[in-house]
Write a structure and sequence with these properties.
Blueprint: E1 4-17, E2 20-27, E3 32-38, E4 43-47, H1 51-60, E5 106-110, H2 116-125, H3 137-145, E6 150-158, E7 165-168, E8 171-174, E9 184-191, E10 197-206, H4 212-215, E11 250-259, E12 268-271, H5 274-288, E13 292-295, H6 298-312, E14 327-329, E15 337-339, E16 344-347, H7 348-353, H8 364-372, H9 382-395, H10 397-418
Parallel strand pairs: 3-7, 9-13, 11-12, 13-16
Antiparallel strand pairs: 1-2, 1-6, 2-3, 4-5, 6-7, 6-8, 9-10, 10-11, 14-15
Helix pairs in contact: 8-10, 9-10
Amino acid sequence: MDETITGRGFLVHAWTRSGQVRMAGRLDSGESFALTLPAPPTALLVEAAAGERARQVLAAQGFKQGGALDGNIPHTPVDPVVPTHPDSPGVQDDVFPNQTFSGRALVALPVEADAWSAASRALESAGIRVHGEAPRPAEDLLTRRGIRGLLGIRGPVRPAKRVGRFWQDPEISRDEGPLVPLRWLALDIETSREGHVRAISLAGRYPPHVSLAAVNPPAPTPAPTPLDAHQPAPLSDPSLPPSNPGDAGIFGVDEVLFRGPPTGDPAIVTYASEAGLLKAFLARIQAIDPDVLTGWNVIDFDLELLCRRCAELSIPFLLGRSDESARVEKRPGQRTRCFIPGRQAVDAMQLMRGSGTRFEDQTLDTVAHSLLGTGKTVQARGEDKMAELDRLYRDDPLAFCRYCLEDSRLVIRILEKTGPDSLT
């Protein structure tokens, strides 16, 4: 029998899939958590006169409820939504409106939130108007409970694979207690001119209660293969001091994953192939389990390129806290959207741009020199910078990797200096 556990934490991400609202975040104990609840019902609202034809269109194109889930988050079926037309009672008026503003009767056709947009387009293409806006079940559920960040959780705990604790169908409530510290992790990638990944650096300071043994578990040295590292999993390198020695925090994560020859530096793990490097990166994110991924232009460049390269190499982009792939969507004229189940991606450059502080430009080097009095290890720009990085990659891999690592460290130090990373 599952044990009933009470917890409190900070909600990092809430999303909807297959009839469920899924949530993930950080508990005040330091553990990560995930939970699932049945999603509020969602439906397409069409005029009653077009209801039967709309049902036929949806059925012909295969729209239906249900669907299997992946990983630890099991599927909980949701009761079907019934029409709100007076001739078909069953749903309360406060769930879906039963008429338009002009008095025309409406029917609600059940459809899962994941499929709502596609189903709506199918009906619109068939000349059937859909009333109302796209549903937001996760946001609606949180609004009804008055939850804006902190929450209390009580219910049976199930075995978890990607988080510390997992609740299924718990009681949740608004919490007004102390803030819960989150784990921020900065990343930076270096690529070839062809856009292939050469190195990925990771840097993050964690509060004292976080176990660094859990973040950086010791690992035996594997037998080298084309996809294996030449060195064991890294620990923090004492030869690379924290960027701010006077700070009580430490770089709990301070490492580089590098496609190239061994460097002799224990903070640099080397790989013989790009595929091996990318797989190791995804595994490290699961082991470190950050709440927030950050970096300089991290969404539009780093995460977008990592997502694309994983797709091109047939590697599932499992960056989150469920078995759903993360995705980065670029749309002309719109801000790039990044979906990482259970985590958030925050662009440090955008934070600084919106901070109200004026800089000569928005490059990491300029902002770092302005705020920290130091900057990147390679000062060149444009073609000169690319040529210098090509030279370092070829002739001085250690300097190349330390250049990559310093970019991640600078982002963490900028966030510490300006404060956004402490806001939960």
